[in-house]
Amino acid sequence: MSSTIFLFSICWFALCFYKLRFSLHMLQIEGYKNEKYIEWTEKNKDKIYTQKDKIYTAICIINTVFFVFATGSGKGNTSQYAMAISIFTSLLLILKYKEKYNSKKPLVFTPRAKRLLAVAMGLTLIDFIIVVLIVQFVSKDFVKYFPLWSGFLSIVYFFSSYYIIGANFVAQPIENSIHKKFYDAASDKIKNMTKLTSVGITGSYGKTSTKFLTAAILGRKFNVLNTPDSYNTPMGISKVINNDLTDDYEIFIAELGATKVGDIHEVAMLTNPKIGILTSIGPCHLETFKSIDNIMRTKYELIECLPDDGIAIFNYDNEYVKKLADKTYKEKILYGIKNADKADVYATDIVVGNTGSKFTLCINDSGTVECETKLLGEHNILNILAGAATAKVLGLSLDEIRKGIADIESVEHRLQLIDPGTGVIVIDDAFNSNPDGAKAALNVLASFKDKRKIIVTPGMIELGEHEQTENEKFGENIAAVCDIAILVGKKQTVPIQIGLQKNGFDEDNLYVVNSLNEATKILEKLTKVNDVVLFENDLPDTYNEN
Length: 546
Description:
Elements: H1 2-29, H2 34-43, H3 45-48, H4 51-72, H5 79-97, H6 111-139, H7 146-158, H8 163-191, E1 197-202, H9 207-218, E2 224-226, H10 234-244, E3 251-255, H11 263-271, E4 275-278, H12 286-289, H13 292-299, H14 301-305, E5 311-315, H15 319-326, E6 331-336, E7 345-352, E8 357-363, E9 367-373, H16 378-393, H17 398-407, E10 416-418, E11 424-429, H18 435-446, E12 452-457, H19 467-481, E13 484-488, H20 494-502, E14 510-513, H21 516-526, E15 531-536
Parallel strand pairs: 1-3, 1-4, 2-3, 4-5, 5-6, 6-7, 11-15, 12-13, 12-15, 13-14
Antiparallel strand pairs: 7-8, 8-9, 10-11
Helix pairs in contact: 1-5, 1-6, 1-7, 4-5, 4-7, 6-7, 6-8, 8-10, 9-16, 9-17, 18-19, 19-20
């Protein structure tokens, strides 16, 4: 009997472990923010409480009820039968959990993730003990009444996803202490590197691309270190400074990210920038910022953190950035294409093709130079201007800047042109999407004349009250450019479908699927020589509608 109870207990903890691991994955995708995870659970109850979870819990409860009535009516000892049923159903559910669920970005077992999972499992152990002790206290025989407490534990398992919230709350003081330690060490280190020039880049979008291409241009003259990929949080940047930044580097370029007011101030104080670049302001992360004014205030924190002799670089084509630039009295450089007459760094004679772009770079007080780049889209020329403005500040010649621009390679998943030699060209713009970026991507797609144009997209997210309208506009723009549209997410893409209908898109050429895997299977059947396929945005696993 005791070995049977032990087996059930092992099975129960295994079930809790698998459920908590999935919950931890979703929490990690949501940036370890409880409020965002709770919001996700409210929208995805079918993933938290799966059909198999419901069946398992129902069987255990029915088992418990049957045991109680059978025992009360004196129908002999039903414990062994109840145990067998509980263990059997537990094992079946474990076998289901052993099947790997599809994920685009797998759970990374960082030290923080391991700590959270350990704390969450500790909380389940506490509740396990409490349930058994209560049954023992009331019945004086927890072995005989195993079916009773196994039924209660099935309910505990059913709601065990919420233990990860408790674990995150309990572990927060520990995480804060660890973060502060790394943050302080990184801050002290960079402030003592007197020969280093730090460059901070922020904006609603364009900051990652601007970071990489600025590094490529400055690399013509300096030894440059930039934060990798989308490392833009205090912990991520601290890790780069502590582990990778040495005295050999002359320039450090950091991308500064934010989801709420005060975030940019925190990372700006960490990186100690002498030069600050503000690439754009738009409705990204509007769900957390609540208003454009809050986004403007937050992004401007970078400029406020610059020293008195610091230099602010502004995208003067962006209406919101323009307002911030006009109120700035620190030394500033303005760049743009549309407002070239008021900009210090601008581009003329722009020729955008489907293999790259050509333009004339104009820098006030320096002159002009003809430039070529492999990057696609006019918006990337705007990003290049930010890099050229930084190069101007740091004393690069026009020829050095021109060569640096020619050196720039496509940034992965950001309008990256891929030609696998099959006759089908792929434009990978899957990193993320925003209204301006989506429009620019469609413009690039439209530049492929005499080719059938296909788009695969789940649309745009985190645009707050603008999300419905912007996705409808996106649908209208898709209808004007694309021959075939594959939309990922039947619920998520409803506004895009409305926009497509408004512009008379042929429904026979519209495919709506639940996952990228389904979209890929459709592409395998549809694509042929002379097609060009645009992948616009790729939502994280928390938005998967499977």
